[in-house]
Amino acid sequence: MHERSLPASPNWYCSRCSDVNSSGLLGVGAKNTIYLIQVSASSCRVVGELVGHKDLVSGFSFCQHAGQSHICVSSSNDGSVRFWDSDNKALIREHAAHQTPVAAVHWSPVDKNLVVSGDEKGIVVCHWHHTGDSASFFPEPRTIFCLTCSPHTWSTVAVGYKDGMIVLIDVSKKGEVMHRLRGHDDEIHSLTWSPLASEDTLYSRPEDSEATSGVSAGDEKGCYLASGSKDQTVRIWSSAKGKGVMTLKLPYVKKRGSAVDPGVKERLWLHVHWPKGRPTQLVSSCFSGELVMWDLTRTGKQRWTLFGTSSEGQNHSRIIFNLSSVHLQDDRELLISTSMDREIKCWDLASLDCCWTLPTLGGFVYALTFSPVGAGCLALGVGDNMIRVWNTLTTQNQYDTRSFWQGIKSKVTALAWHPKKEGSLSFGTDDGKVGIYDVFSNKPPQISSSYHRKTVYTLAWGPPVPPMSFGAAGGKPSYCLYSCAGEGVILQHDPTKLSGEASDIDKLIRDTNDIKHKLSPHTDLSWKPDGKVVAIGNEDGCIDVYQAPSLKLLCSIQQHHKIINTLRWHHDHSSPPELHCLLASGSSNATVFIHDLHSVIENPPESPVVLTEPYRRLCGHTAKITGMAWSPHHDARLVTVSYDGTAQVWDVLQEAALSNYRGHVGYLLCVDWSPVDPDVIWTGGKDFTLQEWRVSKQEFTKPPKGKKMVDLREKKKANPKAKKKKASGPGGAVSVETNGEPVTGGQKAVTGQELSGEDEEDEVSSTNSPVPPPATFEMQRKSSAVVKSKDKPDLNLLKKKKPRSMLPVSTSMDHRPKEDLLQDCINLASVKYSNAPPAGCVPGQGEHIHLGLFSDRQALYRMLEAEEEGHVEAGHYDSVVYVRLWSGDLEGALQLATEKGELSDHLLSVAPMAGFEVWSRTVEAFVKQLCLQEQYLKAASHLLSINKLYEAVDLLRSHKLYREAIALVKARLPADEPVLTELYTCWAATLEKDGHFSAAAKCYLAAGASFDAAKVIARKNDVSSLRTAANLARISGEVALAQSLALRCAKDLAAALDWVKAQEVLSSQESLLVHRLHLGVAELLAAMLADSQVASQPCVSSHPWVSRGERHVSIQDRVRDVWERQFGVSQKSAGHRSAETLLQELKSVESPTPTANIPLKQVQLYSSLHLTRAVLSWLLDDDGQLIKELWQAVAWFRDAGHLDVSAELCNLLFPDGDVSVCSRKHPKTLHHTETEAKAAADSLQAFVHYQHLYEHWWSNSIQIQNGCSRSAVDSSPGDEVKDKVVNGGVSEEGVCPATRLDKQDFGASLLLSEHHAACQATQRSVIEIQERLAAMVLQHSRAQRPQLDSGEKEPDAPTQVSNTGESSNSQGSADAGPEDQETLLSLSSKMSEHQKRLADLPDTIKMYPHPDVVECCLVLLHLSKASPSVSESLQQEAKDLLRKYGTNPSVLKACQRFLT
User: Fold this and answer.
1) Assign residue 633 a region: left if phi > 0, alpha if psi is -120 to 50, beta otherwise?
2) How many CB atoms lie within 10 A of CB 201?
3) Interatomic CA distance for residues 344 and 335, integer angstroms
4) CA-to-CA distance for 1439 and 1435, rounded, in angstroms?
5) What's the CA gap between 459 and 441, in Å, rounded?
6) Angle, nearest 10°, between helix axes 1357-1369 and 1314-1344?
7) CA separation (Å) from 909 to 747, 881, 919, 922, 1102?
8) 352/1059 Cα distance (integer angstroms)
9) Which of these, 584, 562, 555, lies nearest to 748 by C-alpha position?
10) Lowest-confidence pick of 585-594, 620-629, 672-681, 1075-1084
11) Which residues 6+ apart lie within 8 Å of 64 measured at CB?
12) What SS3 state is found at 119?
């Protein structure tokens, strides 16, 4: 194998990516490889690698059982789990049980065959090593971060998740969850079990722990588990109890002098490790690379100790990812740590000091070079943005390296030591930077102010050439720094003055050699050690040799036909002079050429010589050559490295292959021979490693032709970009299809694309891109830097689609067969230089269209015409427009674009060049086009550009973009612009239609139409809208509207019984006083009715003054009191508070006619309106009006069917039962003069008596009451035909028994009024006739429509008919005959007769009806049976009236017992 080597950096952000076995073999996952490193207390050595994963290694674990400790297991983001034999470096078995990247893997410390792995989806898999079986469980649907098998119970596994949850599962019971450990609130980075199989007491203060102080083992046998989380705490858990027993917070440790990259913010990865045999000691990582030893038996600051405090610089400088420990035979206990600082350190657990440090590499090794001055000082340029300088000769520390990162910030692709000045190292980077480090100081590097545009390929120190060599005498530098980069330029930098401008040597080459043509881009340069000549390699494969200092061209070597990657002159110390002029060159061909330039250098020719034959040819590599080095110890011995993955040592003069090294995986990029040991060579490559090896110990002498070639061919197939061009190398044996595409645009071999695992992708990629964008391995693990081979085609799909050519016809002509293209050149030359062009060759026409581009303008116009036709045929009008535009036909181009609807912003921007008219026309056309595309705002903006403001506004308005139109008008036109009002009005109408009332109101307000604004808000018709509308109207002076809206709002509130708010709404307007009075009365009435429990409804809010008054105070008295106190209205008040004014205002309020379906709340409002008028009339001493209004107030309840409420109202109005006594508080007795008032008073009094009559009857005897209620029920069917007022239903309404039973006078004269009896009888007859007529019409229509569907019933009518039928039949068979024979005519004549009779009656009788006289007679007669208080004469009167008017069948039936 190899001697010393620097491996790739261990992977970041993995919970267990390294492990060490009992014999001290450390395995570390780095990229998709596992490096095996033998460790001891004093040193370490990379002894091998396990290669095979297709993606990043995410976990690694050794089997810790005797006899099997060489077996190990690894997991990867490719979803596989692989078992390896570390002795043979061979794969034993692969399991593909996971579908997603595996996050963690662990070999059980108890069962030597059990391996447990977990993936990002949360699936846990158990693998059995001896049988190859596996079983999957899914304990939690969360992302697994880490898992650890218990060292005491084979079936217990602890799993840590991304969200901070830890779960203990039992794999013997199908992954059943034993405990869920909750406490962490961020990612679980690591879990570790205590090495002791019991829960012995750990010291813990109550405030430290979630459990009691001093946790001791219970009956169950448990074990402690430690967890480290991103939340900066380590927690210790009891697995028996399933809860936490201790929490350790990470200490903040001050940085100790180590420089930290300022671009890196404080990260944290908290790894915990419980070393074997130390049950009270726990090791954890900390912030920024510190390691902490926790003593779990101590408290406070004594609890933790830092590692590496004995001397400076022992610690890691960045966060630590993994820890593993080993007990060696010599009784040393070692701890191995891996970190983000790309170092692996070994610690002695006894002293906590660092034993050794192994640097690792996080990128391709692009350059390596030994210092010519400092013996054994090796510099590495690495793709992880760092330079390493390794003193390879120190004895005590084999890996004595220093890292340099300041000022680099990109991959280091080239290095060169100063030939004389010790410690001066120049570097070049991937982003074109050139700088010089002094490696012995801590200063940042000097950076050249001249940057290359692309990757720096080569650096070389050499003598200055003009203009730098002309300095003041003695002031010129003896050496300059030359840099060659991907854009093909070589710059000369002055090392003493890097801030100055670097010079491009091409100018000197042109001037000296009088060259007019373009120079081929340069790709490499090499100064002969004596500084006399410089060899420059070019992209076309040619090598030019120039003489210093004037850079006169001596010769041109034209043997390679591909890009030159590396040039090296033979050294000139202690070797024969004839060898000093040997130049070795390597290109993207696989053959190495050696040139002997002795004659050319010693005897410079007059004019440059062209050499086409090499001095020696070294054949054997199978891919491009990337680097080479002559042995400083031998004559003409050369080592070369290649993309075939091997390094080859040659005896140049014999053209013999001596030794082939195959220790790397993938391409090699750089090589150097040890300056002290002739047998040792160092190589670096794309596998992120640097390797030292001995020439004499290699088993192969020649590069491989077998498997490697096959592998490369496979890779080629997988990589669709590689074009397979046939060409055979000079050896003839090798087909060059393995070399990849000839890279022409400055793509040089050294520049690998740093995609770990993406083998072929970088070099075979397109031209002109020296280093594709770095998807570096340095990115965090989660971003999976490795690109899977199966994904490769997708990278190509991501490339942008090539834009359509503007000149497709002529372009296609340039893709014809090679012979035609060569003939084109002859034709063109003939046209240009000879007087007689070949027959039929007219550039720009026919067969020669494409030549129009290379001939005169006429030819070009001919070509463009043909192109235009082609575009029109293909329908690519936009291209036609551009062709016209370019040829100067601007108007034509615009015309075409207008016709085709292909105008664009760009065309519009050039339109003004054709003049204002054209521009204006184009804008208008574009506006039409935009409107068709519905881009109205853009269209309006374009109209503004030609000052068509009104048109722009119209356009916006017509597309209902009112908001924008208004903004435009307000911004550009005067405030009184009529268009503005019009816009607001239109917008308001639209908004109103869509139901956006408040927005519409704003528009109306802006347009000055406050009336409309208030109206539109009121349309919503809810309380808040009405109130707002009223306020708005009031503020804007619309008084009448404000009043009507306030009134509407108050009515709604009152209907909802929210009295306080209703009064508030009205109080804002003085003129609404009378309505406030009305609501006050309504509130009082509602409260008093609620008190007496006839009509109690839940009230939203009420005033304090409605609280219960004394029972015997009448409602009108209370109203007067409230008015005086609250509203200042009395007999004395004047002005707008005078009763007269108020009454006048109130008269204008209409109240509808009562019907049975008006809700009680509304009935109360209407009734209280009449009460209000009555009280105002009282204040004016208008008795007539007063009594009429009181009658109306009572009648409202009665007519709406609320008889009990109307009776209660009578009680409230006349507590004494006397209608003439209006008030006791303000003594007032009523005297009526006019007949109407008298009739009203009589009617009221009659109803009061009617009520007393019933009360008296009910209170007399319960039996009689029962009997009566039965007779009343009997009488009810007939009562349906009575006037609504006298509905017999009263007998069933539960009116309270009267308190006064002593008064026998029921006002019989009022109740038994003959006039009213006659009127009521007539009204009953009319209703009866109407019903009969209706029945006849119905029968007639039935007869007309016999086909009426049996399912279709006539609604309601039949029941009425049967009722009437019953009543008419029950009149006895004597009447039956004529009844049946009644005709429409006879009924009509009866009807007119009754109506005439009704018309003759006085109006007062009809206006102010009395209770049903017939009903009163019946009640009196019933009462007379039980009470002696009814006089004989009264009984007689009642009987007479019954005989005369009791014609209704049900009445006849009821009065039979009294009249027989």
Assistant:
1) alpha
2) 12
3) 10
4) 6
5) 22
6) 120
7) 41, 14, 9, 10, 72
8) 85
9) 562
10) 1075-1084
11) 21, 22, 107, 109
12) strand
Give the amino acid at 565.
N
Residues 6+ apart with CB under 8 A from 1306: 1249, 1252, 1253, 1256, 1420
Terminal-residue alpha carbon distance, the chain: 143
Tokens for 1265? 């009451």
- Using the CB atoms, write b or e for 311-339: b if 16+ within 10 Å: eeebbbbbbbbbbbbbeeeeebbbbbbbb
The residues, any chain, with a CB within 8 Å of residue 844's CB and separated by 6 or more, are 851, 852, 855, 858, 859, 860, 861, 862, 863, 866
Beta-carbon contacts of 1369 under 8 Å, excluding residues fewer than 6 positions away, are 1376
Give CA–CA dist 849/831, Å, rounded.
Answer: 14
* CB contact burial 1419-1436 (16+ within 10 A = b; e otherwise): bbbbbbebeebbeeebbe
User: Residue type for 325, please?
Assistant: S
Using pLDDT thresholds of 50, 70 and 90, give the confidence band for residue 1108: low
Confidence of residue 1110 (pLDDT cuts 50, 70, 90): low
Predicted confidence at residue 638, as pLDDT, reads 96
Instruction: For residue 1161, give the amino acid letter.
Output: K
Identify the residue whose tokens are 């008296």: 1256
Task: Give the pLDDT of residue 388.
Answer: 95
Q: Which residues lie closer than 8 Å to 813 by C-beta, 6 or more apart? A: 849, 850
Tokens read off for 209? 């722990």
Contact 453, 432 (CB under 8 A): yes
Distance of CA 436 to the CA centre of its chain: 47
Tell me if 688 sits within 8 A of 30, measured CB to CB. yes
Helix (H, G, I), strand (E, B) or coil at 601: helix
3-state secondary structure of 306: strand
* Tokens 């794969």 found at: 91
Closest CA to 664 of 638, 694, 695, 643: 643
CA dist 1190 and 1176 (Å) reads: 11
Residue 155: HSE in the Cβ half-sphere, 13 Å Cα cutoff? 9
Task: Please name which of 36, 37, 33 lies closest in space to residue 51, comparing C-alpha atoms.
Answer: 33
- Report the SS3 class of residue 131: coil
Distance CA 644, CA 621 (A): 7
Longest CA pairwise span in the chain (Å): 172
- State the DSSP string of 1132-1159: S--GGGSHHHHHHHHHTS------TTS-
Count of Cβ atoms closer than 10 Å to residue 977 Cβ: 15
* SS3 readout for 629-669: EECCCCCCEEEEEECCCCEEEEECCCCEEEEEECCCCCCEE
How would you list the strands of the sheet with 156-161, edge to edge? 144-149, 156-161, 166-170, 176-181
pTM: 0.57
- CA-based R_g, the chain, Å: 56
Q: How many other C-beta atoms are found inside a 10 Å radius of the C-beta of residue 552?
A: 16
Of 1039, 1037, 990, 1040, whose CA–CA distance to 1016 is shortest? Answer: 990
In the DSSP assignment, the letter for residue 571 is P
> Quick one: pLDDT band at residue 1076, thresholds 50, 70, 90?
confident
How far apart are the C-alpha atoms of 55 and 1355, rounded to whole Å?
Answer: 85
Percentage of the chain lying above the pLDDT 70 cut: 84
CA–CA gap between residue 897 and residue 903 (Å, rounded): 5
DSSP designation for 35:
E
Structure token digits, residue 1023: 């309380």
